[in-house]
Design brief:
The complex is a heterodimer of chains A (126) and B (492). Chain A is built from five helices and no strands. With 126 residues, chain A is mainly alpha-helical. Chain A is globular. With 492 residues, chain B is an alpha/beta fold. Helix content of chain B is 31%, strand content 23%. Classes of the chains: A mainly alpha (126), B alpha/beta (492).
């Protein structure tokens, strides 16, 4: 119980910290900032370096590709597909590894310019 | 060519007038009177000399957005308050553009310079302008935060942030993204390409005229047996100026006739709605005009996708079918059906889906529907009583036109001052809006109405008839009315 309360406290503190640290928000037609968006939307699962391939908290054993250094065009295309795409054959949402819903949520409010900025940032990760 | 056309039109008009024993000067005077009464919105010409009583009411007023609604509200507040303390937050330097002129730019009547109003020219004296973007709203504690991190506190806030054009929702042109009607939209134009256009942005309106001219040249090579197809769409969201898609269609029609190639083109209007106009009288009039001009139309067609390479637009077509007998309800069930329909186009004019900006939609000020939930009569926020909304972003039915703003900003100023003085809110907006529906070059049907869903004309003339007089009003009177009346004096 204590641990849960502590966890919740920690989570709320870190949320507040994130809020005041940067005033950037995605989806507002501001000049895109790939690094800020990556930190907020991607780093938890893909790691700060883009090399993480699994999420430890998950009950299921799901692996995904290390994305660091991906081609920018390929990356933007994939992100755009996750954001708004449907599979051609049955119109189901795009879901490659089992995390389709999470990718959809992460990309939903990003503009196309912001997706491109994230793709460029990921391309630069070593 | 345009000047020649207008000259011809005027000489024609002179002939008509002479037959009635009237000079053009008299007629212009008459049009002037009507435009003056337009300014007053149906009261009378005396109201032009409205007496302004200054008040000593105090309070820090913050206005989000420096478009027509925000700027004219600020102007009128400075007129009525003896010690105004007003701040406007607006990052875009073209924010005050004259948007009603975009149809005329799209139809090649006006050059784009006619509609570019610089924000900095219209900031009233003594009003502070912050050239940043408000991105976080904390109405519980009465402050907003901008993208540069500036925290702005207020006692009263007026949200006039406008709306986003959401091209991103249309598959095939997602990369066009979201945008405002003014400012740099080069990305949008690049993505739309050479066959697709939209007059809903200022730059897009200019581009529309270029594309239209190219397509008219192309139409000269077509034949009535193998016509080109021009498609004009209307989306499934509330839009700025619901008449705009029809206006540009009518202007395109006029330009095709002028070039003598109208028979080589099929004109098709695809609307998500089930009628031409929400008001039965105007619906009948517009439908009659569509039939007369030989336009085709599809109701309940919502644009979903654009395949630029194949020049095909995909629509979601909806209809209802009679289902099995329901023994409990004693009637047949109605089964809604829909399917995707592909229609080939040679020229596609898109009226994009539109929505409130995200920073407001997801803030505590916004609502699930996106628009700012305000009392539609007093324009006061339902929950936060020191917040008001005006213009496109307000959740007010039929209220997304400059004509509505002209009524709303006065109501808002009266109410906010009453609240500052601790009085009951006196003013009520009745939903007046106006749509000068251009039916061809030289005539306009002046559709005026309010929430009673009845035509509310201010002159005793049949409102469903297209008249050249309204054309003169649209071309000559409405812009100075906006520019001088609302933005520079705050009295119109």
């Amino acid at each position: 119980m204590k641990r849960i309360i502590l966890l919740a406290l920690f989570a709320s503190v870190s949320l507040l910290a994130a809020d005041s640290a940067s005033v950037y928000r995605s989806g507002l037609l501001l000049p895109p900032k790939g690094d800020v968006i990556y930190d907020r939307q991607c780093a938890l699962c893909h790691g700060d370096n883009g090399k993480q391939t699994t999420f430890k908290g998950s009950a299921m054993d799901i692996k995904y590709a290390p994305i660091a250094g991906w081609d920018v065009a390929k990356m933007s295309r994939e992100l755009l597909r996750y954001k708004s795409g449907r599979e051609e054959k049955d119109y189901s949402p795009v879901n490659k590894t089992g995390y389709g819903a999470i990718m959809r949520a992460a990309t939903k409010d990003l503009s196309v310019a912001e997706l491109d900025a994230v793709a460029a940032y990921v391309n630069g990760l070593k | 060519m345009d000047n020649q056309y207008i000259k011809n039109m005027l000489s024609q008009m002179d002939k008509e007038l002479a037959s009635k024993g009237m000079s053009r000067r008299d007629a212009m005077k008459l049009a002037g009177i009507s435009s003056a009464s337009l300014l007053m919105g149906g009261t009378n010409a005396q109201a032009a000399e409205e007496e302004i009583v200054k008040t000593d009411a105090k309070g820090r007023i913050l206005i989000i957005g420096g478009g027509l609604a925000g700027m004219s509200t600020a102007r009128r507040l400075t007129l009525k308050l003896s010690n105004p303390d007003i701040t406007i937050i607006e990052p875009n330097e073209d924010s005050s553009n004259y948007q009603p002129g975009q149809t005329l730019v799209g139809g090649g009547i006006w050059p784009i310079e006619e509609i570019i109003f610089k924000r900095d020219d219209y900031v009233p004296d003594g009003v502070k302008l912050i050239k940043e973007k408000a991105i976080a709203f904390t109405p519980q504690k009465n402050y907003v935060t901008t993208d540069k991190g500036t925290k702005v506190e207020y006692d009263y806030m007026i949200v006039a942030a406008g709306l986003h054009l959401d091209f991103e929702r249309l598959k095939g042109i997602e990369a066009a993204g979201r945008c405002y009607s003014s400012g740099d939209n080069s990305n949008l134009l690049k993505v739309l390409g050479d066959d697709v256009c939209s007059i809903f942005t200022a730059e897009g309106a200019e581009r529309t005229w270029e594309i239209m001219q190219a397509k008219i040249e192309e139409a000269k090579k077509a034949s009535p047996e193998k016509p080109l197809r021009f498609i004009f769409t209307h989306p499934n969201t509330p839009i700025k100026c619901g008449g705009a898609p029809k206006k540009i269609m009518n202007l395109a029609n006029a330009r095709l006739k002028e070039a003598g190639v109208r028979d080589n083109v099929e004109m098709l209007f695809c609307t998500n709605g089930g009628a031409m106009f929400g008001i039965p009288e105007y619906h009948d009039a517009v439908l009659g005009q569509f039939k007369r001009e030989g336009f085709k139309w599809h109701y309940r067609h919502n644009l979903l996708e654009v395949h630029k390479d194949r020049k095909i637009a995909v629509f979601d077509s909806k209809w209802q079918e009679k289902g099995p007998w329901d023994p409990i309800m004693h009637e047949y069930e109605v089964i809604p059906k829909h399917e995707k329909v592909e229609i080939a186009y040679d020229f596609l004019h898109i009226a994009p889906p539109q929505m409130a900006p995200r920073e407001l939609r997801e803030s505590d000020v916004g609502s699930a529907a996106g628009w700012i939930p305000v009392n539609k009569q007093t324009l006061q926020h339902f929950q936060y009583k020191n917040i008001y909304a005006v213009g496109d972003v307000a959740q007010v039915p039929m209220g997304k036109t400059g004509g509505s703003v002209r009524k709303q900003y006065k109501v808002l100023v009266d109410n906010i001052i009453a609240q500052m003085e601790g009085k009951k809110l006196p003013a009520k907006y009745a939903g007046y809006t106006v749509c000068p529906l251009i039916t061809t070059i030289g005539t306009v049907m002046l559709a005026e109405f309010n929430w009673t869903v009845k035509p509310t004309p201010l002159l005793p003339l049949d409102p469903t008839v297209e008249r050249w007089m309204w054309w003169l009003v649209k071309i000559y009177a409405l812009k100075p009315m906006t520019q001088i009346g609302m933005l520079t004096t705050g009295r119109a």
